[in-house]
Design a protein that fits this description.
Layout: E1 13-16, H1 22-33, E2 37-42, H2 45-57, E3 61-67, H3 73-86, E4 92-95, H4 111-137, E5 143-147, H5 160-179, E6 186-191, H6 198-203, H7 220-226, E7 236-238
Helix pairs in contact: 3-4, 4-5
């Protein structure tokens, strides 16, 4: 495989959500370079196909491209069934997809938008756990990795919906980690910190993009946590 590093994920099947751009695409590229077999989901078919071309260009392997709106919870269940039929297991789950919502006073947030951000940032990740836990249990070393943010820790004015959902995500993953202690699965959180993504540009419109790291610069810890020899469980890991 061209442009590989040490092949640390060779033979491992990894699912990445929100994979069509930004951090998700960077994680997929890093996993491809390490030899993983990829299942990539995002809302846009075109974005997934462009990433697939990139991955094939570096000698990587994408087995499935799944256009998926994570608010379609029944589709998440169908994804689990399809992966079971095709692979019989899943080695790595990366819950990366997220939504910022509107940064505004709590009283000004529309109920529909509040629910939408909760659905994407929290409930979808619970549904992924619910659907894919049986597949992770079929792996000799299942790894579940969820992307969080510093907004989850310490109240921050106007970040209500996003901060609340990330705080709840951290608690949920902590609970899951406790429940799987006696299994081969390990579940952890990664905070990528200040990263050059479309979401950050929306949150900080006046920021110089060159002042923050690119997504490809923060993927090393995602590779670490996806490896079979990573024993941590219930940890919050900083990628920078």
């Amino acid at each position: 495989m061209s442009e590989t590093t040490s092949g640390r994920l060779t033979g491992r099947i990894a699912l990445v959500t929100g994979a069509s751009r930004g951090l998700g695409a960077a994680i997929a590229r890093a996993y491809a370079r390490e030899g993983a077999e990829l299942v990539l989901t995002a809302r846009t078919q075109g974005g997934l196909e462009e990433l697939d071309d990139e991955i094939r260009g570096i000698g990587g392997k994408t087995s499935l491209l799944v256009p998926l709106d994570l608010r379609d919870f029944d589709a998440i269940d169908r994804l689990g069934a399809a992966l079971f039929e095709r692979f019989g297991r899943l080695d790595v789950l990366v819950g990366n997809a997220g939504q910022l919502g509107t940064l505004s006073p709590l009283g000004h947030i529309a109920p529909k938008e509040w629910q939408e951000v909760i659905d994407v940032n929290l409930t979808a990740n619970w549904r992924l756990i619910r659907s894919l836990d049986p597949l992770l249990r079929q792996s000799a070393a299942g790894r579940a990795i969820f992307v969080t943010s510093g907004a989850a820790r310490g109240a921050r004015a106007y970040w209500g919906t996003y901060a609340v959902t990330k705080a709840a995500l951290e608690m949920m993953v902590g609970v899951y980690a406790q429940e799987i202690q006696q299994t081969p699965i390990r579940a952890n959180l990664i905070d990528p910190g200040r990263t050059r993504t479309r979401m950050r540009a929306k949150a900080y419109p006046g920021e110089d993009p060159a002042s923050v790291k690119s997504p490809d610069e923060v993927t090393a810890r995602f590779v670490d946590l996806a490896c079979a020899d990573f024993a941590g469980n219930g940890q919050l890991v900083l990628s920078q």
